Amino acid sequence: MAIKVGFVSLGCPKNLLDTENMLHILSENGFEIVAEDVDADVIIINTCAFIESAKQEAIDNILDVAWLKENHTLKGIVVTGCLAERYREEVLQRMPEVDCVLGTGSVASIVDAVNAAYKGERFSRFDDVEKAPFLNNRIVTTPEHFAYLKIADGCDNCCTYCVIPQIRGRFRSRPMEEIVEEARDLAALGAKEICLVAQDTTRYGEDLYGTYCLDSLIASLSEVEGIEWIRLMYCYADRLTDGLIEEIATNPKVVKYIDLPLQHISDSVLKRMNRRDTESSIRAVIEKLRTKIPDICIRTTFITGFPGETEEDFEKLKDFIKETRFERLGVFEYSREENTPAYDMPDQIPEKLKRKRYDALMSEQRRISRENNEKCVGKTFKVLCEGYDKAAETYYGRSYADAPDIDGKVFFSAPRRLRDGDMVDVEITEVLDYDLRGRAL
Question: Are residues 9 and 158 in the same domain?
């Protein structure tokens, strides 16, 4: 009888892709994948450990699953992903509920880990993440009309607040032909939208080809039949080349959307963060994007409460947000992470003040988002239909300005029956906070 395996996948889309790789490996080796935790013999928890809240979410999920081990038929727990890589044997030592731990470079060893967990044996493996091959086969878990596509892994940026280089290793690109081949496979499965992900997508190709060549990759991907939308995530402002901006502007398959985490605007804070950007370079990039691509949707994130952030720094960031009026924006309170340079920096900001600054920035962005959305009323957007809400009796989907899982939705009525994945033109009639309402034409 096949061992039944359940999965809990936490964190970012890059982590989800590791989950999908493990699903494929287990399926190919005769394991049965089950949707319900209560049906599983072994549960794999693929964790995030980027900031304190992510670590706590991982621990909470491990403890929730441990209840099944004590009170139900669950035989073993395997912890993988960033928490496992960051804390290694400490996970086994401090959490006796866990049977096996795999680092981020040991995804290919998931069969050994599950077999050991099923037998009640302890097992751990931490291969060199930088030598781990890219795994090209996966079971796609997103709705069939869109998928994430990893183009690189690792990071060399070494921002002083970030543990990713410790967890994922140095930056390394996937060969272009492998990425294009995977895009063809995704299109054959029904994907119309692919979201390109990496720790730094704009650096793509530097290590393999000696130059940034995200624009060349996009051009090749746009030739894949069936792919209608290509979306860029995790871009760095200082690596937005003129060639890439031109490709976004002129390639009809590239949605006019860019995810550009800026983190701050104060030069003194950016310097302490070890970011290469300055206030002037950031402003220049935004002006260039909005000049070359007038309808572009810029998504960004900022960190407030970084060590030494003065009231003047904070007000500068707040004023910048008011002035720039980003179409999409998120804010994080600085998370003090051990083994990072920022952990030992002087002038740590009290948690209460971090929360106050966070609330002020999000309140400002809430107002901006509503005003931006109100300008959409009367306009028509192409929308990727993602489902039908029976309770609300309305279809819902996403426009070019909405990335999966993190942005808003468009709710709309339609004169005919639609399927998930259909592309429809929707006239916007109403604003619902971060979402829009309209009718399909």
Answer: no
